[in-house]
User: Fold these one by one.
Assistant:
Number 1:
Amino acid sequence: MATSPHPWLNPAVTVGGLAPLVFMAVQGPRGALGPNAIEAALNQTGLITLVLLVASLACTPVRLVTGWTWPARVRRTLGLLAFTYASSHFLTYVVLDRGLSLSALLEELAERPFIFVGFTAWMLLVPLAVTSTNAWVRRLGFPRWQRLHRLAYVAAVLGVVHFVWRVKKDVTEPVLYGAVLALLFALRVGEAMRKRRARAASAARNPA
Amino acid sequence: MSDDTPSGSDITPEPLYLRRRELLKNAGLFLGTAAGVAGGLLSLTGRGRGSSADAVPDAGAVAGPVVKAASEFDTSEPRTSYEDITTYNNFYELGLDKGDPARLAHLLKPRPWTVTLDGEVHEPRTVDIDQLLSWFPPEERVYRMRCVEAWSMVIPWLGFPLAALLAKVKPTSHARYVAFTTLMDPEQLPGQQRRVLDWPYTEGLRLDEAKHPLTFMAMGLYGRQLPAQNGAPLRLVVPWKYGFKGGKSIVRITLTRTRPFTTWNMAAPEEYGFYANVNPAVPHPRWSQATERRIGDFERRRTLPFNGYAEQVAHLYSGMDLRENY
């Protein structure tokens, strides 16, 4: 990381990515989020989580399609930002919206599938955030680390389901996110199949 | 500070100069990227905010004397501010976000306007809104308003009891229900250009609910004409039911023999019942109705059965299973 060609890139994504959160925390109590600031903060943190999660999942497909290297450099930052927003979303719900009532929270988790799904998505991101360091990549070995971090896809899908369930009537927006995810997933599956075929072909050419 | 031209050694050495250029370039890229990321996130996820106070269009004061209603129709709870009542709205015909209706309110023209009263009545008629309003002296009533989304307000409405209007047109003995229809005009109500719901918005009440003294037709709030985003020029207010029962910008009131189709009930029958009485014990399938957030409050509060009007209206539902008839 020390001699990366774009030393400004990750700090810039971090600062820019955190700016909306700082704005909400500072301006929300002053009325900038409208009459129902808690609801607005919940909606905003949830949406930004999804955007960042999708952006982090788009890094590899974008690299594959364009050949640029910078998406891979910001992937971890985007993932950690997504986790930061998911955690803010969760804390806003638990502390501000439900007043830290644990019994109410457990009841909601048990009785509302949409809350349960959102909570599960956040839980899936926890091990990914913990193992986001280079040391953890080494400790787990890259293939295992990679398999673990595919959970990001599961979390994103659950996030979209959570969003669909949350919306009262108009599901256009959640469906859009779902479509982008499906496209990214298709690109990856295509790439994996190409690799597998290439390996099979090379194995056929060089029988052991 | 000498006047001589600088000697070569005073000029910045080239490597340092290049480093500075590099630093400046990186600083520029840093700022540009950070601003781009922040702007991108906000533009993708920024919601229509409640507009600021000065953006609230002032619908003029209501002319003539205002009758103060009997105290049984008033709550003494603190009133929600005019700004919040007029900038935090659900009126899908003027947009899906809470701030949209106030922003697009100027598109809805509440004059000229007629209301058709028909169906199972002895004296059907179509009346100009101002003539209709001249029949009833405006009365002020401070009601709680509980939205099905678990937020609530306290609103000082101006208007008249629906019962008085129904008496004018003399329902026949066959009348069992009352249906309310909102204006259908995609020009004035651009939300109708997309079939989010089955337009025009229709709502309905059982005749005894409609005749109940609490059931109110509002034409103003806070002593002023009703703003478009709150359902100008005439809307229904049923304070013991969830807010969506109170149809806005009404053009037609029809008495019927059979239960009318109602918009949200048709859109999602398992989530929005015909009765839609405020009931903390019956959760919406996706969220609890046990508590609510009063707009302007930080803490949630307990939701009351029939929104606190149980004493006046519970008898309308005696013998009915309110879980079945949600």
Number 2:
Amino acid sequence: MTTNSLTLARCGIKLANITNIAGLGSLLLLASCANTPQNQTTQVSNAPVSHVLEAAHVDADKLLNRITWGANASSSQELRAAGMDRYLEQQLRGRVAILPPAIQAQIDSMTITQRPFDQLMQDLETRRITAEKQKGIDDTLGKDYQQELSRLAKEAATRSLLRAVYSQNQLQEQMSWFWMNHFNIHNGKANERALLGDFEERAIRPNALGNFHDLLRATVLHPAMLRYLDNDQNAVNRINENYARELMELHTMGVGSGYSQGDVQELARVLTGFGVNQNPDTPKMKAELQRLYVRNGIFEFNPQRHDFGDKKILNKVVHGRGLPELDEVITLLSRQPATAQFISRKLAIYFVSDTPSDALVSKMAQRFLQTDGNIPAVLRSMFESPEFIASLGNKFKDPMHYVVSSIRLAYDGNPIMNTGPMLNWLNMLGQQTNGRQTPDGYSMQESAWASAGQMAMRFDVAKSLANNNPGLFKIDNQPAPPRPPQPALVNSPYVKNWANSFSVGTQQALMQANSPQEWNAFFLASPEMMRR
Amino acid sequence: MNRRDLLKAFAALSATSISSSLFAAPATQNRLLIVFLRGGYDASNLLIPTSSNFYYEARPNIAIARPMSGNNPGATADLNAALELNADWGLHPALRDSIYPLYQKGEAAFIPFAGTDDLSRSHFETQDSIELGQPLVGTRNFHSGFLNRLADVLNGTPAMSFTDQLPIVMQGKARIANTSLRSPGKSNVDNRQSKIITQMYSQTGLAQQVTEGFAVREEVSREMQEEMNSANRNAISTKGFELEARRIAKMMREKYALGFVDVGGWDTHVNQGGASGTLASKFDELGRGLVAYQQEMGDAWRNTTVVVLSEFGRTFRENGKRGTDHGHGSVYWVLGGGIKGGQVAGEQIQLEQPKLFQNRDYPVLNEYRAVLGGLFAGIYGLNASQLDHVFAGVKARNIGLV
């Protein structure tokens, strides 16, 4: 382990004493500071690859279904070329991802790609203020402003879905979704619709396969989180404890893990002054406070609003001194054994079973503590466990997995042009992108997604997916293509071959199909397609 | 043959694959709907402790004014003041046209200082523990909710969760289906296809969910068709929770004896408002929805009970941003055509600063399992062992509402 001390000049934030794992230095990114989208640039290691999965004769397609957003012909080919263990290794490292040109072009043309975030947010604020002044005189301005927020949210959701379907870095995309859900933010609050894309791009995704400490820090310093959990309203003597509570309960240690109401209140005091400022001006204040003021785009630490008294959190005294208190607390929280347990259990529920064994969780938590929160190391200890291997094929898909895996199978190599139908299906299935109102995120357990109402809805979606859906290939403001591409299901040797391994009941149903579309529908509706 | 009989006949014809319990006529005339307000609603601004000076000190910006005193009959009513319930309590003015008249008719009651002993002040933890309805100490079964156990005790009473996922409260041994009525669409899977899919699942662990899922979907689309037809005739346009509640009432009237629905968005940390504002609009919407439910139930309202609850109340004092943070004790509502309403029920105390729990919240004096147990015992005539199945180890308390 090495200890770095670095200053990110552009942000004006000094990161003191951040412990970092050798070899993962390039992952240490202060996400909300960087101004260009990053590609993961971790070097390919020459470290020997284990042979755990191969030795266990794991079913390759089942493995793909679990560590990617869904097996399809091309990923299967990729895995077979690399070998199972090396493929996993590559996925854990997150190579530079190349997207199909048609997909990359869609992402490149988005406003959230083209416009610097801070500028975009300042312009939106100007529009909001103008619209507010015109209220009652000209309401179209307010309506236009709201529509623009929704359009930006749709861009972010689309980008996320396109990457889930087409990126080669499947595990990184799955982990991005996992952390987006763990650090859930709701689209419906204030102007979150415009903030979410940047939150995902710069706080979550670059750290999805990085270090938990850095990930946590990036979320705490992101305006999207500060606004969602009301911390932009948290000031000295006007404490708002909402974020402090969820930070301990949902983001790090977990409820009932040993912190008290007093700890929540003290943490809320540490968090005073961290907020959002969408105006170009900075507040005026005395010179000695001015020195402590930090501005990074629309993120702001305003010392005038900060409680400079000493705090006591988890029996540790945190000396009041401004922003560095936060770093101290983030380190404290991310190194708690309770945090290691809580995060490990959540990962195991997502990737292994609704009820992972305590032994597996403890093993992962130990790895978490040993590596100071190195996410790939924790994941590897899970992926190589007998419990993980035994669980392949059993985990019930949540709607996101169901929709994305179906599209990956149906349109492998045939880039879709419009995610509108996918977004709609996710809505129907109760898992709207960034639509979870509460900060706990969507459930990852079967009981939440396998109820009667859910199953019936899923078959509706299966049928819509199974027909060659023109909506998926319609570019906005242009006529739909007369003959959209067929979903490659019944005509795909890969799918046909896979279906041969399905149960007798499923095969009998497939034989009763009256048309290729109906075969596709039954295939997508099958019990086998509900699990990963 | 009237419409209802006709529908039943159709259902019987097309329902060969449908489980018989799903559409069996309810064995009991009683209808119970639980409405869960998720987010810990600010009960202190719903049921206003008008006799407490401390309330007005603790909430300088968001308190609801005392009702106009009766010794000035000529004065115009203050539309922003609390509606007088008794000497100690008033009701939020947003409920003037919905719940207040019900209260005056004796069909609504409130239980202050209600809730759980769970002290985490976490939404999710507390919602879970209320839905489970199990003791807080010892091992808990996370797949056994109290409404499921009630359905189990009532032996095949048809129950439905009007939510898009099956909530914990409805999970457990009794098979209970779910369907959201917020914006139900029409199914595109035809009869032949649904039979083939049902067959495909017959040997799997999901067989029952699939069968019930199709049956409920069909039922819902029939109801929606009916709704469209009548909407065209009567041009009633409702939306939001009011529309949802109307739909729920139709299905509760005809098919289900036990129902659950949740309403989110009560976590008001910032600018919650007072007589008007964010929270007032939520109360208004909820009140109108509950009255829509009452109207749609028609004659069945006489045998209907609605309980409105939430995971906790909020801090008694307003915070620096004119909102409230997570608290402890809450106020539950009980509505129904046959209840002894028109009262504020259960154990109560005068609200002064030293009486606050941990100097910030309402204490819990009416533990929810004891209170609900008493309510269920009264409604269904449950014996001690049946009650123990629903709320193990809890002594039910009759607070005189049924």
Number 3:
Amino acid sequence: MSQSYDRGLVEDYGRWTEFSAGMWAWVFHKFTGWVLIGYMFAHIAVLSSAIAGPEVYTQTLGGLESILLVRMLEVGLLAVAVFHTLNGIRLLMIDLGIGVELETQAKSFYASLVVTAIITIASVPNFMGGAF
Amino acid sequence: MAEQYSSFKSGTTLWFLQRVTAAILLVTLMFHFFWLHFVHHAAEITFQGTAFRMEQLGYFLTMLLFLVAGAFHGVNGVYNALINQGITGSTRTFLKWVLVIAGVILLVQGIRVALAMSGGAI
């Protein structure tokens, strides 16, 4: 199984020249994780309008979806969720001993970025439909 | 053997549960996004449609599983990220309990929302 690896403090910006694909994958996974859990709290808060009544819920969601910035943020959220998911699959595979070589880990990280970009761009029409 | 980038020590219960919830989220998150953004568009969502879905026990339980897995995975992920940043001692204990309370609040409110969405059918 995995060996522990002391990567040091991430906020030590003096280490930026040491950044490797594995380090970027780790930083991106943490960043997207923070965004997703933050969004989850906000999402439950918005959905709590259902407790106030059916009309309040429908108007709240409809009102938010009428804001262009919200639609754009949804595209960003999809990008964040897709990357976190793909990188998570990558981490699960590595935990299972698949693709553990550093070169393979780097390639799978770059593949995660490319697939995330493709899915995100392809989803833009779906998310922005009716926004204008 | 190649060095592995793991957020925390393998073999612990929290490490195992983080992987289990990740596997659950792989399925439930994709289902959620697909169903509520690509099949039903978010802009067209009404309480009536939400209630129709949530009144179905299978869908309701899937969303509950999604909530529990997401809350645990997210809160535990934040805790591990903080440990990676070097928190120790009383700071670590304090933040652990802040996150536990935040996670419980998220779960309780999420369940209240789910029950309201089911319109009393569940």
Number 4:
Amino acid sequence: MPKVLIVDDTAFMRKLMKNILFGAGFDVAGEAENGKMAVEMYQQIKPDIVTMDVVMPEMTGIDALKNIKSIDGNAKVVMCTAIGQEKIVKTAIKLGAKGYIIKPFQAPKVIEEIKKVLAM
Amino acid sequence: MTEKIHLRTPAKLYDGKWMDAELVLGDETLAIGNKRIPVKEVEDIDNVEIENVSAIKIKKDGEIIIKPPEKLHAQVFRFLSFNLKADRFAVYFLARATSGGVVSAGVQWEKGYFSVTEEGLWFLSPKKQERIPLENMGSVEKDVRNVGGQQRMVLVLSHVEKGSVLTSLIMCPETTLEMVNNYLQRLIKSHKPEIELTEEEKEILTLIYSGLDSVSIENFIGVSTEDLNAYYDRIVEAGLANVVKIRKEIELTPSGISMVDKVK
């Protein structure tokens, strides 16, 4: 069962993502509410995949992505961006993000994207 | 002076049932059966399916449904869409540039018109006649995009179709762009439901959008079925959702109970 780390500054969005992924059989191994926490938790739990919000306090998702990729070049990070953040998506892909999910989420699309990145 | 006739063909008219009628499409008038519609007064049109038949719905003092022969359908639709009673702007457009955040394959910038009717927005070119119902419009904002290697100011229209968010782009001289932007902002605002949602109601909308069923939503936010139904009523009344299924709660009759008793 693939381990997932969910990163989002909103508790509601974390809970929703957790609900969707848990329902699809993923192991939600951890939740972080900002980029700094995400980098620390990544090293501890070594997840198979990370869902990373972009706009967060302390450390943005883009900076957290950079940090995680410097720790583990093979890290699989899927960015969660709001509609109209196409520029951020491009930056994230250049920095090594493996996919992206548009907020608000639709469960089938989230699962499809995560499975695609994990090549399931 | 006699009106120029573009098309005269047998067609069908729907009035509770399909009836044979002659369709005559002139420069100024569309006539079908005993109905005559001044072309410039057609308020909007749409492709519809009635009793498994693809047809054109024409809005002018109510609705008229016509079915031209298959091979002439596109021609009639194109003629009417270019002649709608609408505000029309000459633009370059990229309709359905992205769908669900993914860049659509094969779409290209086209030179044509952006047309605004009472009920919809239209992207019109000789090849394309795309309609966005006003109720499907999300937002309009200005943004800078790379168009043909140059950074250009464009209008980004977000709209919804079959549950997916699509974006379309409009490019035109900056003064026109500003005018179209202001016009659309006012239009969208006037069509937005006049309701101020609470945080809980916004969360419920998000959960419905994400695909959670009612029982999951109750557990997620910790409300009873009655409370959730009250939220649903308000959301439906505000025109933000439609009822698709009514839940049933039943209790067993004595016969039902005796059946359970037999289950080993």
